[in-house]
Design a protein that fits this description.
The complex is a heterodimer of chains A (259) and B (217).
Chain A (H helix, E strand, L loop, with lengths): L2 H9 L4 E12 L2 E12 L3 E5 L6 H8 L7 E6 L2 E2 L7 H6 L1 E4 L11 H11 L5 H14 L15 H13 L5 E5 L7 H16 L4 E4 L3 H7 L2 E6 L2 E6 L1 H6 L4 H8 L6
Parallel strand pairs in A: 3-8, 3-9, 6-7, 7-8
Antiparallel strand pairs in A: 1-2, 1-4, 4-5, 9-10
Chain B lengths: L1 H36 L4 H16 L2 H16 L5 H26 L3 H9 L4 H31 L11 H11 L7 H33 L2
Classes of the chains: A alpha/beta (259), B mainly alpha (217).
């Protein structure tokens, strides 16, 4: 956040995009999220980190209504997100989600992948949509791939297209679920640069990642999850240098090596 | 000679007629069966599985006997040869088709469903735009393959007294055995060629589809 933005947010309290209170999620007897309370403000980039199986991805999936929850509530702009409800279709249009697996539609070209949802769901005109899709592709450096099929792209290119496909819906918030976890190291960079660019432009995001250097660079706030609870949260400079809890410290140590 | 050729063609028409009707029924019933087979209900699953396995394990010839002779014996219902043949090939074709449809849907990764939904598509929109087109592309080459198998297997129906192309061929050979002892090779060659003319275009279509898919997969 720049100083100016901080002043602005001090004047009027930041508007919450997402509010989560007392969220409980379990698979059978296995409690994955155990009473999560948090909110995300407009323009904020929240990065969720924590050991595997700590529930970070599940949290994102709950936010998008892909998983039923067993307790608590989630709301987007005050509208409740309820698994299986009719209103979910409307809410999902305001939430962009990119997954770890390459989830482009293989039978459609890059351009058609991006244009499908605005045309079918938002009933926007074809010309208008195509123009915006091309602008987005331009922005992520893939305008020349518009007519290609997903199978003709590298993993990093696919993820950049997936980001465009979500962005074109003008979502209130983007949820990025380990979007570089399946990529070769040299491709991680090109995808994360796109995300950094989004952050600079004020896109509200919740990001799950294992790339600590990226987390530190992109986040306004780090949330450390373990065992289904928020153990610690704070601004990245503080969190990475001086974690307050022993568990966070132990987790961060697993990323450094010394002989 | 000209007469014999016409007779072969009329036999071929019987083959094609039985095949086409059976294939048409199999496509419709098999698609419905496939939809049922994707059900998560365990009982439904087991029943479908048992049906499929029984149909697969028993040779089509046995099915022809059961339907043509057995059913008449048991119930008194008297099916003609062609009707029996259509029933048997539909029972078989629908089972295989059902399994193909099930496979085609289950081959679609879960995240295709999830990413469709998270883009705000409704379920009907998702099936129409994302799931069906992909399932169909998985399915088409296999369905064509099944159709050619069914066409070839109809050669069995001469056993229940249907005079299809192979039977006509045998009759021609037998009728001319003394005059033209080597007729068999030519008659069978002609029949081979007829089957080829029907099945080869189907194989070509199937290959063209697979090739087209490779680009976008």
């Amino acid at each position: 956040m720049t100083e100016q933005e901080q002043n602005a947010s001090a004047a009027n309290p930041p508007e919450h995009i997402i509010d989560i209170s007392g969220l409980v999620k379990s698979f059978g007897d296995n409690v994955v999220l155990d009473g999560i309370d948090m909110s995300v403000s407009r323009g904020e980039v929240v990065v969720l980190i924590g050991p595997s199986g700590c529930g970070k991805s599940t949290l994102l999936r709950c936010l998008n209504g892909l998983e039923p929850i067993q307790g608590g509530s989630i709301s987007l702009h005050g509208e409740p997100v309820v698994y299986g409800s009719k209103s979910l279709y409307k809410i999902r249009q305001k939430i962009g989600m990119v997954f770890q697996s390459y989830d482009l539609f293989p039978h459609l070209t890059v351009l058609k992948n991006i244009m499908l949802s605005p045309i079918k769901v938002q009933k926007r005109s074809k010309e208008d949509t195509e123009k915006e899709a091309m602008e987005l592709l331009e922005r992520v450096g893939l305008a020349d791939k518009a007519k290609s099929y997903p199978s003709e792209l590298s993993g990093g290119q696919k993820q950049r297209v997936a980001i465009c496909r979500s962005l074109i819906m003008n979502p209130e918030i983007m949820l990025l679920d380990e979007i570089t976890a399946a990529l070769d190291p040299e491709m991680v960079h090109e995808v994360l640069n796109v995300v950094l660019d989004l952050a600079k432009n004020g896109t509200t995001m919740m990001i799950v990642t294992h790339e600590m250097a990226f987390a530190e660079a992109v986040a306004d706030r780090i949330i450390f999850l373990d065992g289904g609870s928020i153990i610690e949260q704070g601004v990245p400079s503080e969190f990475f240098k001086r974690p307050q809890t022993e568990r966070a410290e132990r987790f961060l140590k697993t990323f450094t090596y010394s002989k | 000679m000209g007469n014999n050729f016409l007779r072969l063609l009329s036999g071929l028409w019987v083959t094609v007629r039985i095949s086409l009707i059976s294939i048409a029924f199999s496509l419709v019933l098999g698609t419905l069966l496939g939809a049922v087979m994707t059900s998560k209900n365990k009982v439904v699953k087991v029943i479908c599985r048992v049906y499929l396995e029984i149909v697969r394990i028993m040779p089509q010839l046995v099915w022809l006997f059961i339907v043509f002779f057995g059913v008449t014996r048991l119930t008194g219902a008297n099916f003609g040869g062609e009707t029996s043949a259509v029933i048997v090939f539909t029972i078989w074709g629908a089972a295989e088709m059902g399994d193909l449809v099930r496979g085609a849907f289950q081959a679609i990764p879960k995240h295709q469903f999830e990413s469709s939904l998270s883009l705000g598509l409704t379920k009907p929109q998702m099936y129409l735009n994302i799931i069906f087109p992909q399932a169909l592309r998985n399915l088409l080459p296999n369905v064509i393959n099944l159709a050619t198998r069914m066409i070839k297997t109809t050669a069995l129906v001469s056993i229940i007294g249907i005079t299809e192309v192979l039977k006509v061929g045998k009759q021609i050979i037998d009728a001319n055995r003394f005059e033209f002892p080597n007729a068999a090779i030519w008659v069978y060659a002609a029949i081979f060629f007829m089957y080829f003319l029907i099945c080869f275009p189907l194989s070509m279509i199937s290959r063209a589809i697979v090739k087209k898919q490779q680009r976008s997969e």
